[in-house]
Predict the structure.
Amino acid sequence: MRKKIILAITGASGTLFAVQFLKLMQHLDVEIHGIISDAGRLVLQHELRLTPDDLKEYVGQWHAKDNFAAPMSSGSSKFDAMLVLPCTMGTLGAIANGVVNNLVHRAADVMLKEKKPLLLAARETPFNRIHLENMLKVHDAGAIVCPPMPSFYHHPENLEEMAGFVAGRLADLLGFEIEGLKRWKGL
Ligand SMILES: Cc1cc2nc3c(=O)[nH]c(=O)nc-3n(C[C@H](O)[C@H](O)[C@H](O)COP(=O)(O)O)c2cc1C
């Protein structure tokens, strides 16, 4: 059955991970609903020279970040899962504390109350105590904290491959079957 996924891009470094994730989703039976924070827009422009419009071929629909009337504002709209990629410490903190200042926060709040998968690709370094406490809070509330940490054992040849591997692991967590994804088979 066709899945409905929310992809939120917030203003942490690593917008390439989001683009590679969208590329992996492109040929799957999935409907992608995008939300991007103001800072996410800024970082996407700075890191990749892209605007949300440039990603239109991958995102079924973009929802304005302050549109609290968007479908994902309500549990009745039945989204299958939500991924925040990359996820800032600001957005993580809002979600952890039930603070709703934009549609990303509201959609995440809804996923938690509906007991639906919420993946937070939290990105910062180093973490302070507040970041760590917030990660534990969202974990205890049912979210999966999955920082986009690149790995090297699959010998990536470029940044796209490196980010693609991380995106593949996130797709795994969301239950997608991605053909051709490199997997560890032992030494
Ligand atoms: C180029 C750039 C990179 C940033 N990287 C991070 C980051 O990795 N993690 C983070 O928590 N904030 C980062 N920030 C700061 C956030 O964008 C800022 O805290 C913002 O208020 C977050 O808002 P949002 O969560 O609504 O996107 C970065 C900002 C810029 C301009």
In short: The chain has a mean pLDDT of 96.
